[in-house]
Design brief:
This is MBL fold metallo-hydrolase. This protein has a single domain, classed as Metallo-beta-lactamase, Chain A (4-Layer Sandwich), CATH 3.60.15.10. It has a 6-stranded mixed sheet, with helices on one face. The chain has a 5-stranded mixed sheet with strand order 9-10-11-14-15, with no helix packed on it. It has about 260 residues and is of the alpha+beta class. Helix content is about 25%, strand content about 25%. It has 8 helices and 15 strands. Strand 1 and strand 2 form a beta hairpin.
């Protein structure tokens, strides 16, 4: 996928980049740049930014500073080292898995999943982590969970893997198919194998759609962006509710087995 920086809304930019599975299929990836009311900037996630993109970022930041890099998905690790090299003065936050994989990097003690970090930015950003699922799965092929971020001022959700936006060819709309927001297909494997896990996940999805229901933009890592200017369908909040409804078969099966 072509590298580009998308100006999603005031004070929010989404960086689209390339990520190839097995070096062949390019499913894309993302990071986002957020300007805080203080004038400083945050990077959400990491990407090995090319020189042209670096110049664009420098132009956006100007005399400001990138104060921190928040790596939000425990299995998004390919670009972590390079992002730190590009912005060595930014505080570096990661999940426990990032810290374990790259102990040589100057990580902050406060991790991306820690409430303390979320509280630091609570005036401008909301964070949430899915409940009832493994955050860091023992199966490295299960990438369901992440730390989701919501920049309230721009109405933008930044999410890796947990939520996906699938843009279908326009011709498919003629047969009743349309673009959709969905939860990652590994949900069944990600659910914790214990009583109450399905109910906790269900409750979390309700809280998510209620609390972030006014969101206007959704930036998703491997699928695409659903932006206010191009959304011709339901609101993002309603799309999340419908995505949760489609999980009921999986959740019901899990509840019957584990309670």
């Amino acid at each position: 996928m072509a590298e580009q920086i998308i100006h999603v809304a005031e004070n929010f930019w989404n960086i689209r980049g390339s990520f190839r599975i097995g070096g062949v299929v390019d499913i894309g990836t993302q990071a986002s740049l957020v300007q805080l009311s203080s004038g400083s900037f945050l990077l959400l996630d990491s990407y090995s930014i090319s020189e042209p993109l670096r110049k664009e970022i420098d132009a956006i930041v100007g005399d400001g500073e990138i104060e921190a890099i928040l790596n939000l998905h425990p299995f998004h690790t390919v670009h972590v080292q390079r992002m730190h090299e590009l912005f060595p003065d930014a505080r570096l936050h990661g999940t426990q898995r990032h810290l374990d994989l790259f102990p040589e990097l100057p990580w902050e003690e406060v991790r991306s999943e820690d409430q303390e970090l979320h509280d630091w930015y609570a005036d401008e950003l909301d964070f949430t982590i899915p409940r009832g699922v493994d955050f860091i799965s023992a199966n490295e092929n299960i990438h369901f969970a992440s730390v989701l971020a919501y920049h309230r001022a721009s109405g933008t959700i930044h999410v890796d893997d947990t939520l996906m936006y699938i843009r279908l060819p326009r011709l498919l709309s003629l047969v009743g198919l349309s673009d959709r927001v969905s939860f990652h297909p590994t949900l069944a494997m990600a659910l914790e194998k214990r009583k109450g896990a399905a109910a906790e996940f269900r409750e979390w999805t309700k809280e998510l759609s209620d609390a972030w229901g006014e969101a206007e933009n959704l930036c998703a890592a491997h699928s695409g962006n659903l932006l206010a200017e191009s959304n011709r369908g339901a609101s993002i909040g309603e799309r999340i509710r419908k995505a949760a409804d489609r999980c009921e078969l999986i959740l019901g099966k899990h509840q019957r087995r584990y309670g």
